[in-house]
Amino acid sequence: MDKFVKLTGVAAPLPVVNIDTDMIIPKDYLKTIKRTGLGKGLFAEARYNEDGSVNPDFVLNKPAYQNAKILVAGDNFGCGSSREHAPWALLDFGIRCVISTSFADIFYNNCFKNGILPIKVSQESLDKLMDDASRGSNAILTVDLENLEITGPDGGSIKFDLDEFKRHCLLNGLDDIGLTLEKGKAIDSFEAKNTASRPWAA
């Protein structure tokens, strides 16, 4: 998993509440277990018209936001079913950070396991960031995970809180497998001692 230390990029505004995982990645895209290629299905029902053509009115289709790395969204982001394809689709599109006032628990935890930083802020802070994100090509935010700070295009900053263990994992690019591998020597030592003391169980 890629480390997340500091991210500077275009922030796209999506002022919609209760965006569920089916809106993030419709069920038609759940036939694969590959993590790549799902970016094309991100918000598919909003990004594309019924005939398959691109909807020019959807924010991620607008020229200024087509390479967005940050999403500023309404309350209760990621609710609904617990599909891990949702963070996979965000990541494959290029989004590494989602900012909202609240997230569904399963989606929130899945983000950390996939290298995405979900940030919870107050409604007042979200309103400010939503305004920043509405500036088109000037909607540049910097998310500094080391200092737990978001800096806007005008230089103003907002602090945020994060569980220290989750912060450690993102800063070091550690998913569940990575955390286990960190204990590799201890695991090998235990197995060697266990085999020596119980050879019949080997």
Named at the architecture level, the CATH assignment is Alpha-Beta Barrel
**Shape by Cα distribution:** globular
Q: How much is the average pLDDT?
A: 92
SS-based structural class? Answer: alpha/beta
CATH topology: Aconitase, domain 4
Give the spatial strand order of the biggest sheet.
Answer: 4-3-2-1-5-6-7
Report the portion of residues in β strands.
15-25%
The radius of gyration computed from the alpha-carbon positions, rounded to a whole number of angstroms, is 20 Å
Low-confidence stretches: none
The total count of strands amounts to 7
What does this molecule look like?
The structure is a single chain. The chain is α/β, with parallel strands linked by helices and 202 residues long. It has a single domain, classed as Aconitase, domain 4 (Alpha-Beta Barrel). It is 33% helix and 16% strand. The chain has eight helices and seven strands. A seven-stranded mixed beta sheet has the order 4-3-2-1-5-6-7. The model has no long low-confidence stretch (mean pLDDT 92).
